[in-house]
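Progress against Task 2.4 (sequence-to-structure conversion) is shown through the following example record, which the project officer requested during the mid-term review.
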Amino acid sequence: MTQTPSQTATPSQTATPQGGCVVSTFAGALGVGATIDGPPGVNRFREPYGIALDSYGTFYVADYAANVIRTIAANGTAATIAGTTAVGSANGAARAATFNGPEAVAVDAALNVYVADTFNHVLRVVTGGQVAAFAGRTGVGAFFDGVGLASTFFYPEGLAFEDDTQLLYVGDTYNNRIRV
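C-alpha coordinates generated for the chain above:
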Protein backbone atom coordinates (compact mmCIF):
# COMPACT_ATOMS: atom_id res chain seq x y z
CA MET A 1 0.00 0.00 0.00
CA THR A 2 1.44 3.39 -0.91
CA GLN A 3 0.73 6.52 1.06
CA THR A 4 1.22 10.20 0.72
CA PRO A 5 2.90 12.02 3.64
CA SER A 6 -0.40 13.66 4.63
CA GLN A 7 -2.11 10.32 5.33
CA THR A 8 -2.20 8.91 8.85
CA ALA A 9 0.03 5.87 9.05
CA THR A 10 -0.59 2.65 10.86
CA PRO A 11 2.35 0.38 11.72
CA SER A 12 1.07 -2.45 9.49
CA GLN A 13 1.01 -0.11 6.49
CA THR A 14 4.52 1.23 6.86
CA ALA A 15 6.80 -1.72 7.69
CA THR A 16 7.71 -4.37 5.15
CA PRO A 17 10.65 -6.77 5.26
CA GLN A 18 11.28 -6.12 1.56
CA GLY A 19 12.13 -2.46 2.13
CA GLY A 20 10.74 0.47 0.23
CA CYS A 21 8.46 1.34 3.11
CA VAL A 22 6.99 4.74 3.75
CA VAL A 23 8.08 6.32 7.03
CA SER A 24 5.53 8.63 8.61
CA THR A 25 4.50 9.90 12.04
CA PHE A 26 2.23 7.67 14.11
CA ALA A 27 2.23 9.78 17.32
CA GLY A 28 3.95 12.94 18.54
CA ALA A 29 5.12 15.94 16.56
CA LEU A 30 8.25 17.73 15.47
CA GLY A 31 9.32 20.59 17.69
CA VAL A 32 9.76 21.21 21.35
CA GLY A 33 9.23 18.10 23.45
CA ALA A 34 6.26 18.07 25.78
CA THR A 35 4.14 15.59 27.70
CA ILE A 36 0.68 15.94 26.23
CA ASP A 37 -1.83 13.10 26.09
CA GLY A 38 -4.48 12.92 23.40
CA PRO A 39 -5.13 12.00 19.79
CA PRO A 40 -2.67 12.26 16.90
CA GLY A 41 -1.84 15.85 16.10
CA VAL A 42 -2.32 16.80 19.76
CA ASN A 43 -0.11 14.34 21.67
CA ARG A 44 3.55 15.15 22.34
CA PHE A 45 6.53 13.25 23.73
CA ARG A 46 9.82 14.26 25.38
CA GLU A 47 12.49 11.89 24.05
CA PRO A 48 10.60 8.61 23.64
CA TYR A 49 13.06 5.71 23.96
CA GLY A 50 11.86 2.14 24.40
CA ILE A 51 8.69 0.84 22.77
CA ALA A 52 6.84 -2.43 23.37
CA LEU A 53 3.67 -3.81 21.84
CA ASP A 54 1.04 -5.96 23.58
CA SER A 55 -1.12 -8.62 21.94
CA TYR A 56 -4.05 -6.16 21.67
CA GLY A 57 -2.15 -3.64 19.54
CA THR A 58 -1.37 -1.13 22.30
CA PHE A 59 2.11 0.37 22.31
CA TYR A 60 3.95 1.17 25.56
CA VAL A 61 6.58 3.92 25.54
CA ALA A 62 9.31 4.88 27.98
CA ASP A 63 9.15 8.67 27.61
CA TYR A 64 12.68 9.25 28.88
CA ALA A 65 12.98 13.02 29.43
CA ALA A 66 9.40 13.24 30.72
CA ASN A 67 10.05 10.46 33.28
CA VAL A 68 6.73 8.79 32.45
CA ILE A 69 5.38 5.60 30.88
CA ARG A 70 2.79 6.09 28.17
CA THR A 71 0.52 4.04 25.97
CA ILE A 72 -0.40 4.65 22.35
CA ALA A 73 -3.65 3.05 21.17
CA ALA A 74 -3.95 1.64 17.66
CA ASN A 75 -5.61 4.91 16.57
CA GLY A 76 -2.57 6.95 17.74
CA THR A 77 -4.09 8.30 20.97
CA ALA A 78 -1.45 8.67 23.71
CA ALA A 79 -2.08 8.41 27.46
CA THR A 80 0.22 8.54 30.47
CA ILE A 81 -0.16 5.42 32.63
CA ALA A 82 2.63 5.98 35.18
CA GLY A 83 4.81 8.83 36.40
CA THR A 84 4.43 12.52 37.15
CA THR A 85 7.24 14.11 35.05
CA ALA A 86 9.17 14.75 38.29
CA VAL A 87 12.51 12.97 38.75
CA GLY A 88 12.44 10.46 41.58
CA SER A 89 12.09 6.85 42.66
CA ALA A 90 8.72 6.75 44.43
CA ASN A 91 6.69 3.56 44.16
CA GLY A 92 2.94 3.35 44.74
CA ALA A 93 -0.04 4.61 42.75
CA ALA A 94 1.00 4.66 39.09
CA ARG A 95 0.16 8.31 38.43
CA ALA A 96 1.96 9.40 41.64
CA ALA A 97 5.08 7.26 41.11
CA THR A 98 8.28 8.88 39.89
CA PHE A 99 11.01 7.68 37.52
CA ASN A 100 14.49 8.86 36.60
CA GLY A 101 15.14 8.51 32.88
CA PRO A 102 13.24 5.33 31.98
CA GLU A 103 14.72 3.99 28.76
CA ALA A 104 13.02 0.66 28.08
CA VAL A 105 9.70 -1.10 28.53
CA ALA A 106 8.45 -4.64 27.99
CA VAL A 107 4.96 -6.06 28.43
CA ASP A 108 3.83 -9.59 29.21
CA ALA A 109 0.63 -11.43 28.27
CA ALA A 110 -1.02 -10.34 31.56
CA LEU A 111 -0.31 -6.69 30.58
CA ASN A 112 2.25 -6.13 33.32
CA VAL A 113 4.55 -3.37 32.08
CA TYR A 114 8.23 -3.77 33.00
CA VAL A 115 10.35 -0.60 33.10
CA ALA A 116 14.11 -0.12 33.00
CA ASP A 117 14.32 2.89 35.32
CA THR A 118 17.77 3.61 33.99
CA PHE A 119 19.16 6.39 36.17
CA ASN A 120 17.72 4.80 39.32
CA HIS A 121 19.49 1.52 38.34
CA VAL A 122 16.33 -0.53 39.01
CA LEU A 123 13.67 -2.56 37.25
CA ARG A 124 10.09 -1.69 38.05
CA VAL A 125 6.68 -3.04 37.13
CA VAL A 126 3.44 -1.21 36.44
CA THR A 127 0.50 -3.47 37.28
CA GLY A 128 -2.98 -2.97 38.67
CA GLY A 129 -2.52 0.81 38.79
CA GLN A 130 0.60 0.50 40.97
CA VAL A 131 4.35 0.86 40.38
CA ALA A 132 6.86 -1.24 42.33
CA ALA A 133 10.59 -1.85 42.12
CA PHE A 134 11.27 -5.58 41.86
CA ALA A 135 14.99 -5.84 41.02
CA GLY A 136 18.04 -3.71 41.67
CA ARG A 137 18.80 -1.18 44.38
CA THR A 138 17.69 2.41 43.85
CA GLY A 139 20.65 4.70 43.28
CA VAL A 140 23.23 1.88 43.41
CA GLY A 141 24.93 1.38 40.04
CA ALA A 142 26.88 -1.85 40.49
CA PHE A 143 26.94 -5.52 39.58
CA PHE A 144 25.54 -8.27 41.74
CA ASP A 145 23.54 -11.33 40.67
CA GLY A 146 20.95 -11.95 43.33
CA VAL A 147 17.26 -12.25 44.06
CA GLY A 148 15.03 -9.23 43.43
CA LEU A 149 16.03 -6.08 45.28
CA ALA A 150 19.32 -7.68 46.42
CA SER A 151 20.59 -7.67 42.81
CA THR A 152 22.16 -4.58 41.27
CA PHE A 153 22.30 -3.05 37.78
CA PHE A 154 24.40 -0.29 36.27
CA TYR A 155 22.21 1.71 33.85
CA PRO A 156 19.76 -0.93 32.58
CA GLU A 157 18.73 0.28 29.13
CA GLY A 158 17.10 -2.60 27.28
CA LEU A 159 14.28 -5.06 28.08
CA ALA A 160 12.64 -7.99 26.35
CA PHE A 161 10.00 -10.27 27.85
CA GLU A 162 9.77 -13.83 26.57
CA ASP A 163 6.19 -15.08 27.08
CA ASP A 164 6.88 -18.82 26.68
CA THR A 165 9.52 -18.95 29.44
CA GLN A 166 8.20 -15.97 31.45
CA LEU A 167 11.74 -14.54 31.51
CA LEU A 168 12.65 -10.86 31.40
CA TYR A 169 15.95 -10.14 29.65
CA VAL A 170 17.83 -6.96 30.64
CA GLY A 171 20.50 -5.06 28.76
CA ASP A 172 22.69 -4.04 31.74
CA THR A 173 24.63 -1.42 29.83
CA TYR A 174 27.56 -0.39 32.02
CA ASN A 175 28.04 -3.95 33.30
CA ASN A 176 28.33 -5.07 29.65
CA ARG A 177 25.94 -7.96 30.21
CA ILE A 178 22.58 -9.35 29.21
CA ARG A 179 20.90 -10.43 32.45
CA VAL A 180 17.87 -12.67 33.07
